[in-house]
Amino acid sequence: YDSFNWAFLALFRLMTQDYWENLFQLTLRAAGKTYMVFFVVVIFLGSFYLINLILAVVAMAYAEQNEATMQEALEKEKEFHDM
């Protein structure tokens, strides 16, 4: 890793699992097998973190949409009772 930018890009590729096998092979040839532990930890923890983050965003959006729908239904029901 020549600079911080390239290292950050490599870590991002590893966390998103975008063609990480090539990155692993290059690191394995250059630095040896000791970095295999780093790859395993980042892939498992990073991937689970990203999946949980995406699921949390989807769940929050669903809850907001559900609340808006319930509010709209209550307003329509009130309008119906006022007739």
TrEMBL record:
Domain Ion transport: 1-69
GO molecular function: voltage-gated sodium channel activity
Cellular compartments annotated: Membrane
Assigned keywords, A-Z: Ion channel, Ion transport, Membrane, Transmembrane, Transmembrane helix, Transport
Topology of this chain in the membrane: Multi-pass membrane protein
InterPro entries referenced in this protein's UniProt entry, alphabetically: Ion_trans_dom (IPR005821), VGCC_Ca_Na (IPR043203)
Superkingdom as given in the UniProt entry: Eukaryota
GO CC term, one of those recorded: voltage-gated sodium channel complex
Family annotation (Gene3D superfamilies): 1.10.287.70
Cited Pfam families: Ion_trans (PF00520)
A GO BP annotation: neuronal action potential
TM regions (residue ranges): 35-62
UniProt protein name: Sodium channel protein type 4 subunit alpha
Taxonomic source organism: Espadarana callistomma
